[in-house]
Every structure is written in C-alpha cells, then in structure tokens.
User: What shape does this take?
Amino acid sequence: MQLVRRTTNLLLEFSAPLLFGVFVALVAANLFPEAYHHAVEWEPIHGATFFGHHLTLHFIVNDLFMVLFFGIAAKEIAESALPGGSLNPLRKAINPLLATAGGVLGPVAVFFAGLALFRALGIYGPDAGPDRGWGIPTATDIALAWMVARAVFGKGHPAIDFLLLLAIADDAIGLGIIAIFYGDPAHPAEAAPLVFVVAGVALAAAMSFLRVNHWTPYVLLAGPLAWYGLMSAHLHPALALVPIIPFIPGPKRDSGLFVAEEAIGPHEVAGHHHDSPLHNFEHQVKPFVDVGLFFFAFANAGVALEGIGPMTALVFGSLVLGKTLGVTACSLLAVRLGFPLPEGMSTRDLVMAGYIAGLGLTVALFVSDAAFVDPILQSEAKMGALLSAGVGVSAWVLGRIFGFGRDTSTVPSDALPEAQAAK
Assistant: This one.
C-alpha cells in the first residue's frame, strides 16, 4: 500500500495525468475526429445551461474546474512572499524577477517580430486577428519545468529554485494578462458586474478578520461571488479564486510544495502542516486538480496534426527563443546592476534555465483557447503550445551532452535548498 501511494504521488507530481491527456487527445482527434468532437461537447445533463452556456465537458473543464487550478497557482504565489519563500527577502529575488520580466517581454517581442515578418511575406494580412496570440507564450508550466530542471541539473541545484521562482512570477503575470486581455471576444468587458468580485473579496477579508479557520467558506462562498462577477463582466471566470486565496489563513513561513516526504514528519504531507487552512486547501484539492488535468488536456489538446501552420511557428518560436534570450539577457542585466545569480549558479546554468522556461504547455493551451475564436488559428496555436513539451526532452539530452548535473559537490550547502513553491 505504501508503494502504491508513493507511486501515485510521484505520477501526480510529475504531471502524468496531464501528459496522458495530451496523448489521448492527439490520438483521438487524429484517428477519431468526429467521436472526439462529440466527447468534448458532451453534456452530462442534456440541454442544461449555466449563465447562458451549455454545460459541455469543455465548459465544465475550462470555466469551472480551472478555477481550482488557478487557485492553487495563486496559493503558491502568495506563499512565495512569506519568510522562507522565493520572494522573501525581496533582494534575493531581484535577479530572477528581472529574469521573469525578460521571460515575458522576450516571447512577446519575438511573437510580434515573427508576425511582422509573416505579414511582410504575405502570410498574414493586416487584420488584427493573429495579434491576440501574443499572450500565449508568456507563462511557464511550473510542474513540468520543475521536473525537467531536476532531471537536468540534479536534485538541490540552485538553478532549480531560480527557475521555480521565475515560473511562479511569470505565471502571476500570466494571470493578469488573461484577466485583462482575454475576456470574451464576442462581448466587451463591463465594469459594473465587477462589484460582485469586490463583494467576494470583501467577504473573504471579513472571514479572515474573524479568523474563519477553514478554507471551504472562502472557496464556496466568496469564490462563487467572484466567479459570477467575472463571468458577468465577460472576463475569464477561471480566475475567480485568484483574489480570494490570499485571505485564507496560511502559515507564517513558506514550506514549499515539492519537499521529500522522508524529510518531514509522519503527520505532515508534502511539507504542509495540517493546522494551516491554506495548506489544507492545497493538500485536499491538489490531488483532484492533478487528476482533473487529464480532462483539461483531453478537452484542449485535441489538435489535428495537419493543424500545424504559421501560428504554430510563432507560438513555439516565441516560447523557446523568446524565453531563452529574454531570461538570459535580463538576468545578466541584473548581475551588471549588482544583483548576482544565486551562489553556485553559472551563466551556462542560466541559459539552460531560460531554455527550460520555454515549457509553456498548460497555461499556453489555456490562453490559446481564450485567445482565438478562429478554429484554424486556435488549432495552430495549440500545436505550438504542445510542441513546447519537446523542450523537456531536448533539455535533458543537451544536459547529458554538456555534462549538466554531474557534479554538485562544489556548490555550497546553503545554495542547495529543496525545490519549493511550485504548483
């Protein structure tokens, strides 16, 4: 039983359901396209609607289930600012935070440069349709980046924490991009319904002030208010828990997520103390989210292989080239400004970390779906997001060729913390 539990936890930790969902979706979409389409549009309660939307598998996954996914992401971001977290004290985070800026601006710059080239070549016209894809390559898949970094650098290398902080920070920026720029394109955003979001935040703040010591009232009472406000305002409701999560009482220090079970007490799970409502939220919800990512991948990754096109190249190139160049350039700028890389991390490690940051699978798929109504552009963009998973394999190969992770004995012990603060 212990072996089964450990194996299950390992598979969930390494995003196995997500990757398996991608595989199943690709196979189904290419071999059984009609059946796949019917599966994605399947309605558990035929004819039922929810705020004007049919309750299809796609809606349930993207607009309801992903609320919990982004809630856990918000939890990691909030805790990273606690003592012991990657953003505390702020000075040690300056270099990776500047690298994060490069990891967002670099892909955007490459995207628009590539788009301008395609327009000059006559591949795209002057219409603004393709422009909406700029936000797709801005975020990094935290769990996959952590997994690949561990494989490339070896357990405990300072580049892993550097990459995790970068991934968390650019996912925070990604949440803002989704909220501001990727509402319902058919309906302009409205400000008035956001009063319900404010009401949800006020309710969460009041419960926190009254020391409500369980996460469920925050999620089940304040969360729906925020969800309704975002949906009514024609903004993406999947972000409903992002402003709510910081009010759930948490620990005084960040204990991280990826902490070896052997290193903690028998009454703690994954480094999380049971007396923290915020940690209990993650501990109780994350296994459901990890498994549910199979359905997210299945509903969003079903792209026909002939769907490869110009937008595929733009998204993939922006992720790989934009992240690598942007992260490296801005981190080295930080070094010039007096904010060094973490002790034990070299420029070579930095370039590899920037390359691994090009893994944009989960959030890139999500934004691809929100960015485009045109099915051709959407399919091409999703294929670019899917191809970014190849960064993991190529990074591992390059790591073996160039000897990454072979010798960590020269890295000071205080530069070898366990990987932490990832989703």
Summary: The CA atoms of residues 344 and 411 lie 5 Å apart.
